[in-house]
Amino acid sequence: MVQELFDRAANCLKEQLPFVLYSKPNETELVGVFQNNDTIHKVNDFTETGFVFAPFDLNSDAILLKMDAVEKVPLNLLHEILPIERDSPKNNTEEKVRYVKLISNAINHIDEGDFNKVVLSRKIEVDCKDDYFEIYQRILNVYKKAFCYFWYHPKIGTWMGATPEILVKSNGSQFTTMSLAGTQNSVGNDAPKWEEKELHEQQLVTDYIFDALKDKVISLNSSERESVRAGQLWHLRTEMKGTFAPNKFGDVLKALHPTPAVCGSPLQNAKKFILENELYDRTFYTGFLGELNMKSELSRNRNRRNQENSAYRSVMKTSELYVNLRCMQLFKDKAEIYVGGGITADSISEKEWEETALKSNTMFRVLDGK
Ligand SMILES: C=C(O[C@H]1C=CC=C(C(=O)O)[C@@H]1O)C(=O)O
Predict the structure, then answer these.
(1) What predicted TM-score, i.e. pTM, was given to this entire model?
(2) Cα separation of 284 and 157, whole Å?
(3) How many CA within 13 A on the CB side of residue 5?
(4) What domain range includes position 331?
(5) Strand partners, 315
(6) What is the reported pLDDT for 123?
(7) How many Å from the N-terminal Cα to the C-terminal Cα in the chain?
(8) pLDDT at 21
(9) For residue 266, what is the domain's CATH number?
(10) Across the strands, what pairs with 243?
(11) Which helix (H) or strand (E) covers residue 2, if one does?
């Protein structure tokens, strides 16, 4: 039962023990991972097994929750909770002036040829007095197509989110990734019409991924570009599937993160600009999270009973990692919502500001500010 899993997690909060609750896109299962002490386990080379929570800047530590206990329950929720009609404040002029200036500065750097695209972001503080489990339940109810998580480590913090973006999903040496960029508000069910700026912005991500992976994979193919919905928003997405050489998962992961969907291209120049100019620490926003190197057994031929079982079973490693977007860090009576957007030469500051406000609604709609 969901309530039992929530109770177990609530007890961990009380006892200050790390846990994560999550549900994968379109799945009807809620998973709880519980670590039975408050040690901070750091990831060394992504060959470890557990639930990883990695920052934007991998010069800081990626954290691994050990799967001391794992519990899975069907996701039939207790009662339907509707999203809250609460939109992000648009009249925060001081913050707007600062953000617009940051965008102009980035466009100057683009014009000077320092980079083609950079993803800029900001943090919005909001009062939040309600129960963490109420908030998480709203997230699960409202964003069924997203990876919905609630992560807690007493020495690091409490995070929640509903992300639409897969960083990488692997099964043995087969993997899937995606290029997600371009944003529009969804109006009714009308499919969006994309402008050149958004098509270009998303194409940069696709090209970057092909280039970053070219010497790390045996094959890589992409699907047609499509429009996908994430809550109230539309994005452009291209899916890519490939095969990497045995034991190269860590290399693929490090080559992918951070993609220009959250950083920019060329990578180093865009990242330098972000670290020097955003003037706040993204910490885990635009990092990644999820199952790392889970072992799954593959039976090759169940019918040949008189053969040694082991000859017909092989252990595969699977990982499923998501980019930490549409997320927030929770504190005692406030939340910090993180949002950003891709800036290119064609960006219009006012529109980029609006876009971050729209994105922040994903979390605003699950927070009750009473
Ligand atoms: C950086 C964010 O979104 C990324 C993912 C999809 C679309 C994006 C965009 O249109 O700029 C961003 O690249 C965010 O939600 O904070």
Answers:
(1) 0.94
(2) 10
(3) 26
(4) 2-300+318-364
(5) 297
(6) 96
(7) 29
(8) 98
(9) 3.60.120.10
(10) 174, 219
(11) helix 2-15
